[in-house]
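This protein record is not my work; I was only asked to verify it. Where you disagree with what is written, explain briefly why. This is what I was given:
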Amino acid sequence: MEGHGQPAVTAAGFWRRAFAFAADALLLALLVFALRWLAALAFEEALTRAVLDAQGRTFARYGGWHGLARDVLGLGVPLFYFVLLEGASGATLGKRLMGVRVVGPEGRRAGLFRALVRNVAKLASFGCCCAGLLLVAWTTRKRAFHDWLAGTDVQRDRR
């Protein structure tokens, strides 16, 4: 406990976390769009034709190199962003903006493995009408389903 009866740590609430995620989502949407555009330019002619000649038309049905680049960039870049920033420093740019951070046990840095588990488990939290995310609004520790699985908390950053 810190002075005046306030706890040293305050869990980040639903709206603060939601706005942090929205800021990150906007940033990532712009970044992924730009990277996809650059990938489309790079793969447009040479690689698509080479693959069609070597493998027939099957690969092209699934979007060819464009589809592969789209999927890798659309899934890989956000995962890399969240895992690296939450695991190493505890906060993405959106979380920094909203003054929150992800912590592991005893308020220490979550680490890359916990951050990876947390972010892969977000898929389960988004499933079933986002019920896993809504737990933040109703639980005492303000933990989402993916926080519970990864053993993490999202706290207000008092620094």
